[in-house]
Amino acid sequence: MSAMPEVYDDEELLAVLRQALAERQAVPPEFVEAAKNAFAWHNIDAELAELTYDSSRDAESAPSTRAETASIRALTFTSAHLTIELEVTHDSLLGQIVPAQPGTIKVQLRDGAESTVPADRIGRFTIRPMPAGTFRLHCKTSADADALTNWITL
Amino acid sequence: MSDGSSVSALVARISGGDQEAWNELVERYSPLVWSICQRYQLSRQDIDDVSQSVWLLLVENIASLRTAAALPGWLSTTTRHEIFRVLRVAHRHEHDDLPPDGQIPGDADAATIEEELIVAERNAALRAAFAELQPHCHDLLSLLMSDPPLAYAHISTMLGIPVGSIGPKRSRCLDHLRRSPHLAGIINQPARHPGVKETRR
After folding, report:
1. Is the per-residue pLDDT at A69 higher than 90?
2. Nearest residue in B to A57, CA atom
3. CA distance linking residue A29 with residue A13, whole number of Å
4. Which of B1, B2, B26, B137 to mutate to test the interface with A (most CBs of A within 10 A)?
5. What CA–CA distance (Å, rounded) separates B189 from A5?
6. Average pLDDT, chain A
7. Long-range contacts of B82-88 (CB under 8 A, 24+ apart)
8. Is it the case that residue B97 has pLDDT exceeding 70?
9. Domains of chain B as residue ranges with CATH
């Protein structure tokens, strides 16, 4: 990528400057804030676990014929070394670390509040009550895998 | 090409753990990420999801970026990649036949993307240069860019300067802006002889 330097007369320069400032003003402050906060992760070895499956989005185009299911919604997050599967039930969040291994799950809220639940010998964990609002999970396993999910809103 | 040296300095400071430098980088390039997201009409939650991934991936990878000049291109590519992921999750069924990665349906062509990067770089450099102007220039140019435009008489009253001085001051302030190191290689001084303009790209 390279471009010849532009030559602008005063009118043109003022016009591109106005455009440049307007472009910055169009960006919501909280979008910029969240990006700044991402730096808190620079010395943490967590890999990003990205949302790769969401049953609620599939469900719209594939209506279920089952009248009642225990799981209201299923989500899958995938990082290079871990998969985190989540099932939403009526009062809790059931999780499974794949490959199965023990560890700890930190539930982080947008405001920085944090709570921790253990994952058992085969990687199962339960978060109850359901986190209110938007949250993400930071999963550390005894085998040193470390993953951080995207933000989740149920 | 550009303001590469000041971006290199930022990247070096960021690699050393400097949050202020990171903030500056975000100020500079968040409009690029935001504007790309806007084009694909994502929901606000999807935009936040894309954005989180892009910036966390940058935190992870910034030390391994080949050159600071590669940063805008990296951000553009990574943002599109993340948008593609979100769209794939959202429209799994409709897009089953898509290649697993790469082009987003209806994505801009390579030339448009390159043009967008050039404009993003220019705009980021202009904002950086403008922020460093002396206060009297900053204030005058801000008023001159008002929408709807303000009459010179009004600006004269607000700044306490004669109407007749606004034109010359405007020129001088814009010259200061052109000479900012941020704009070196992006915006050139006008040619000496009026009417002789360098060819644009």
Report:
1. no
2. B90
3. 26
4. B26
5. 9
6. 86
7. B82/B49, B82/B50, B82/B53, B82/B54, B83/B36, B83/B37, B83/B40, B83/B42, B83/B50, B85/A50, B85/A51, B85/A52, B85/B53, B86/A51, B86/B42, B86/B46, B86/B49, B86/B50, B87/B40, B87/B42
8. no
9. 4-116 (1.10.1740.10), 132-201 (no CATH)
**pTM (two decimals):** 0.75
Contact A33/B at CB under 8 A: no
Specify the pLDDT at position B5: 63
Residue range B50-88, pLDDT digits in tens: 998 899 889 888 877 767 778 889 999 999 999 998 888
* Closest-approach residue (CA) in chain A for B90: A57
DSSP A11-71: HHHHHHHHHHHHHHHTS-HHHHHHHHHGGGGTT--PEEEEEEEEHHHHHHHS----S--S-
- Choose among A123, A49, A112: nearest CA to A81: A49
Contact (Cβ atoms closer than 8 angstroms) between residue B73 and residue A3? no
Is A23–B35 a contact, with Cβ atoms under 8 angstroms apart? yes
Read off the pLDDT of each residue in B36-42 and give the average, rounded to a whole number. 89
| Closest listed residue to residue B73, CA positions, set B38, B115, B39, B107 | B115
Measured in angstroms, the CA of B22 and the nearest CA of chain A are apart by 7
For residue A66, what pLDDT band results from cuts at 50, 70 and 90? very low
Mean pLDDT (whole number) for B32-37: 94
Q: Is A147 on the interface with B (CB under 8 A)?
A: no
- Residue B30 · residue A25 · CB < 8 Å: no
Lowest mean pLDDT across A102-106, B14-18, B22-26: B14-18
pLDDT for position A151: 83
